[in-house]
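Supplementary Methods, section 5.1.

A reviewer requested that the exact input to the structure prediction be made available. We therefore reproduce it here, unchanged from the version used in the analyses.
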Amino acid sequence: MPVHIMGDKNFDDVPSTKNKSLKINLNENIYGTFAEIGAGQETVRNFFRVGGASGTIAKTMSAYDKDFSDSIYGMEEDKRYVTESRLQKMLDHETRLIEDRILRQKHPNKLFFTFANTVATIDFAKKYKGHGWVGIKYQVKPDEGYNKIILHVRFKENHAQLQQNTLGVLGVNLIYGAYYYNYDASKVLKSLYDHIDKDQIEIDTVNFSGPRFKNVDNRLLSLQLVKNGFTEAVMFAPNGKNVLPASILYKKNVLGLRGSFRPVTNVNMDIYKKSLELFLKENKVKREKTQVIFEITLSNLRSEGEINEEDFLDRAKLLCTLGHTVMISNFQEYYKVVEYFSKYTKERMGLAMGVNNLVDIFDQKYYRHLSGGILEAFGKLFFKDLRVYLYPYKDPETGEVITSENLRVHPRMKELYKFFKNNGRVVDIENYDAEVLGIFSREVLAMIAHGEDGWEDKLPESTAKMIKEQNLFQRDYKKPENAGLEYRID
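The structure derived from this sequence is encoded token-by-token as follows.
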């Protein structure tokens, strides 16, 4: 009779790494290959140590030599080895070998798997801490298709041996979660940090696929990475799929636009177009090497209480449908956004924002946790000649248009503001569309939720059509507590 693993929903206590490995080994049906490159065979070592591994491990290997690795898995077009493409080839190749060499007629109940990783640990000079791809391709039922779980990790520890040990624990967690928590992808995700601290390793990209995860939305799992503090930010490409931040930002000029985008409006699009025009006029900024990022912070997502994951997905879908790259981050302060971009690129950077955003930046209360206060924050924010492209605000009561010339900051911040303004760090967007200045996403949202007419004209045509066809933003509407103060790129 076929055997399959549905998961242990009643297993409340977190088992040790040793017990996880042993439970896998003692299951007579779980059987597969370990292919680990770059940090030693740290995952499979845990299974060897606990005993009973002969019934679990078909083969374990490390194709360290590049030529030898290429002869097995083929050469990558970009000549790199620590890539998702390499990991996928490893998973598919080793799984084919198991299928070819183990007869189903003789082993009808076997659940085949391939675990693989390709990583680069910290370099000798300790300048680059390293990163890697980790994944598993596996069966939960002998007569069912294969599932895949793919992760990208960044090491945080400062010693290669520590990184290796952490990778080994992560690998055990992945294999155990794949088999025993497959009824809940979120459970699998959280279990990856069993016996691992968040300051040891970062997971910044995940993708679940296969029959067990056919209803899983990887974008929502990515949001959970940020919510749970497993990573600082995740990104989605215009096709709506998860994408590795490094692949998007590497050696690019970056223009960032922050907002809640609930929903994205014509004023958002005007800010995007006009700020990009200014950014492309900067020295050494070429369009083909420029990346625009629409960022949604968790602080904005929490503006109305707990994060509504469906609501988040609505925002991301609308922006991606318009052809934009979306980043979800844990960053409250702008300087942290700049620091994050700086991890991947040394090229030019710009931020587009509304007047009230800039006023907030000059509020000292946001920097009390820094030993250097606001000066330390501004040193991080405005380094490398960063520009702020400022979109004006039209006072709905007086009709006054506020720009960098007449905005008001706290009296103690006036001289600091003048310094950055006079040094060209704040650039006004002057050719704005005056007809869209009075559009506020919070008001559009209320109109949609209350079934009022006329909101369609305030949004891009395709966005309005998608909202109507999919009934977006029509549930659980609450007026933001700070609605009277808000004028963001929202």
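The first strand starts at residue 30 and ends at 37. These observations are discussed further in the main text.
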